[in-house]
Amino acid sequence: MMQAADLPLWAAIPVALLLLMGAGLTLIGSIGLVRLKTFYERLHAPTLGTSFGMGFILLGSMLFFSVLQTRLVIHEVVIAIAVVLTTPVTLMLLGRAAMHRDRLEGNDPAPDQEGARDDASDSSDGGDGGGQ
To answer: Between 48 and 120, whose confidence is greater?
Structure first.
């Protein structure tokens, strides 16, 4: 088997760029987790960071090992499928659990249904806000 030092330059540059982009997106998601104020805002940034960051890192890994082993390596596809399926589901479950907890405590973060309908009717009347 070849070593990483044997990776040709035409493959090393895209692998390095994919790894850097993946690490950068993951870092941005982590910074968003620290900087955003509410729990609901904090759910969004790390989810996108892990999903897209993971995608770039796995693409770099697939390219790296496919070139080194001179055959297509797709083990990373299984990892990507697992992360893409579990991350949004986990986000949704955490969000719903937090909303349920907030509603039980009387801190409803979502607008009530009547308020949502009033906003929708205001925007459907042509955008002038006059209702006529």
So the answer is: 48
